[in-house]
Design goal:
about 300 residues; alpha/beta; D-Maltodextrin-Binding Protein, domain 2; five-stranded mixed β-sheet; 10 helices; about 35% helix
Length: about 300
Amino acid sequence: MQKKLRVGTRKSKLAMWQTRYVVHLIRLFDPSLEIEIVPITTKGDRILDLPLPKVGDKGLFTKEIEKELLEKNIDLAVHSLKDLPTDLPAGLTIAAYSQRDYPFDALISRNGKRLKELPSGAVIGTSSLRRKVQVKKIRPDLEVKDIRGNVDTRLKKLEEGLYDAIILAQSSLERLGLGDKIGEVLDYFIPAVGQGIIAVETREDDTELIEFLRESVNEPSSEAEALAEREFLKTLGGGCQVPIGALAVVNYDGSMSIEGFVSDPRGERFLKAKLEGHALQAIELGKKLAQRLLQMGGDKII
């Protein structure tokens, strides 16, 4: 394998943290490697004046990085798994999945209140349809408004009083050392597919590098959870216009559970189901759960 690796990533503080974490794991395995981090600006980083569903482009935060990968300007790419579409460009593959941490959403409010304690009419900031419908299902009396920008930008908007509370991924906050700002971990929300997992993408013909990354970075339980959740999303076939969430959990004995939902954008038809099985059948479990929701009426929503 080559002795220098070029690693592509978005430029945000969170993306750089995740990339440095992957680089750290690689260096622990082989300290002799020379590693260069290559920051890349994506379409999602440029368009900040529209809600994500209105931008409506798969690969919003990954396309430009994948282009550099295909053109061999970088050797691997580090992504938040939840940003990666289930269908990757021809010639690319996910070589490794990091150990998952904090899959849940988190609420940060200006007064420290939990979601159920917020006053009627309070304004919640999130650009995620998945989070919006789950807020509305629990607190239909709250107002949900779009918010864009990196973590620091969103926190600043909260402090300026534009929102009474905002919802972010717990993993993002913890990785940036901002866990003390969390007012409530929303562990009763179903998170985004892949939330809390870092994915390492490579060219599928780079077999030596793939083998190296599977040894140095990949965590089998996280991989099984990712495969189940991504198969669930792929089978449902929902795009960014449809609220969808899933969470697979692998237990110490190898058993696995997966819970998922699909909803119309208003949250009027909210379908949820759960299955249990074994991590060795992760893909099959994800597919079966999606098929169950489709049979329950999800096909009309999608």
